[in-house]
Amino acid sequence: MIGVIADPSEEGVIREFFELFKTPWELYHSNRRYEVLLCTRDCGFDGTAKLALFYAGRKVQFDGEHDIWVAHQRTQSCVLLYEGKRIPVYGETVVFSEGGENLLRDERSRQSAAYVKHSGEKVLARIGYDLFGEVRKLLTVGQPFSNAAILTLDLHIALLRDLVTGSGIPLVEIPPVPEGYRFMACLTHDVDHPSIRKHRWDHTMFGFVYRAVLGSVGNFIEGRLRFRDLIRNWAAALKLPFVYLGLTKDFWRKFDDRYLELEKGLCSTFFVIAFKNYSGESSGGRARKLRASRYDARDIADTIRKLLAAGCEIGVHGVDAWLDSPKGREEFAEIRRLTGVSEIGVRMHWLYYDQQSPVALEKAGAAYDSTIGYNETVGYHAGTMQAYKPLQATRLLELPLHVMDTALFNPAYLGLSPSQARITIDRMIHEAIQFGGCLTINWHDRSIFPERLWETCYRELVEDLKIRGAWFSTAGQAVAWFRKRRVTVFETDCTEPEAVCAKVTSDDRENLPRLRLRIHRARESWKNAGEPEGYIDIPFDNSIETPSATRLAHE
Ligand SMILES: [Zn+2]
């Protein structure tokens, strides 16, 4: 059990942190004994804990009391190196003159951002940044896109876990990995352009013709497009007048059939726009006209019914819900009416979002949101692959978005070739397996058709996810699984001393994969942390008690 000593104002962010690092903890009680004490503010605590951890990015009284020499304090963000990995720190940091054991180093100065002292069985570790301040920044402001590729929050969790087990203390947690799978994958589609016939003489039509005819030549020369796809795009551009005349089929229309075929029973999530010809509000007034869609959700009612019947999920592709709850409620009401489903999630069109959005979306009636990601790149805006509760929200969960097709291929963004995109996604799948969580992917409705033709890459991506052990869930199922993990509590009144009990406190009605209790063995040192043989997993349904968890962990 970890006892936490922190400023009372930090309680919200601490609670959220320990939903993501699901391990037994509580706010410090002076009459209890803890194996691990985690402090972020000065206070007198007794010295009985086996591991005392102090995280702060500035010099504190604790340093003077324990003869810890702070060499330097820095107010700008920096990068710390831990086990060969880079951890960006966005707030203040301190480095120490001595005693770091090479645990954590400033990337630029190579000075130690950790001070460690062993005395007998006991360990004191002073870490030179403010853990909960960092978590707060990641869950609110998020990371700049220069650090998008770094799972910063998950690395903070990994470091803390390693500090505990490396101090010779076993640790129990419920990892963000459904039993029977290695990670979760959520396939989603923003439905922006379900018909090219609705785009006559507008920027979408001109953009299509330009990219199909000329842009394709550039893409072909640069190796981003195959010759036969170049021909396909030219043919599509030539056919366009006949599409408008109704003489040939609308080649953006049948996205539902094509995705159902590509996904072969893996249920995906489609976010659809409720009302057409409305660009909505931006933070600086009316959004650009280009943002308006040319379809109403009711225009594709048949498609919606077909997708629902196939087990897919329909969510709101929100226009105003992110800042205007009454208008958001209208968007939700329309999608509820068309689907007959009451619990509806949302992703905002063009990923519009600000600090008030979690509250606005909650008031609009969103079951979850999946907007937090980047338009320009792929990666981890909040530094995690886990669904989390934004600190401003009371119930809403955020399922962050990690991979968007347009960010991968658009020359204005990453502009990757299909093979480069595969390498990027491959790295992210590897990280999902290593850290757990849900890799959320957005492939737009028209992306598999001319002139984008990103179907092959999508098919290979789905195949890769399958081979590597993903649980494919709709966005709603992924969120439900994380909620099930969140309502699981650790109990102290087990039948045997030193046992660990965990209990799911609500009914599992949705037939979701089971949870697993992971018991990390105590280790001799902080080296080679995270190796698979360092833990055992015990799957469970609604409750579990491991009579000799600690003994098991030592074996
Ligand atoms: Zn959109």
Tell me what the structure shows.
The chain is an alpha/beta fold and about 550 residues long. Helices cover about 30% and strands about 20% of the residues. Strands 13, 14, 17, 18, 21, 22 and 23 form a seven-stranded parallel sheet that branches. Strands 2-1-3-4-11-10 form a six-stranded mixed sheet, with no helix packed on it. A three-stranded antiparallel sheet has the order 7-6-9, with helices on one face. Strand 6 (about 80) and strand 7 form a beta hairpin. Helix 5 packs antiparallel against helix 6 (about 225-245) and helix 12 packs parallel to helix 13. It is elongated. Zinc ion (ZN) binds near residues 190, 192, 317 and 349.
Structural class computed from helices and strand pairing: alpha/beta
Q: What is the helix content? A: 25-40%
Strand percentage lies at 15-25%
The residue ranges in which pLDDT falls below 50 over 5 or more consecutive positions are none
Number of helices: 15
Could you give the distance between the termini? 20 Å
Radius of gyration: 25 Å
Which small molecules are bound?
zinc ion
Number of strands: 28
Shape: elongated
The pLDDT mean sits at 93
Largest beta-sheet characterization = 7 strands, parallel
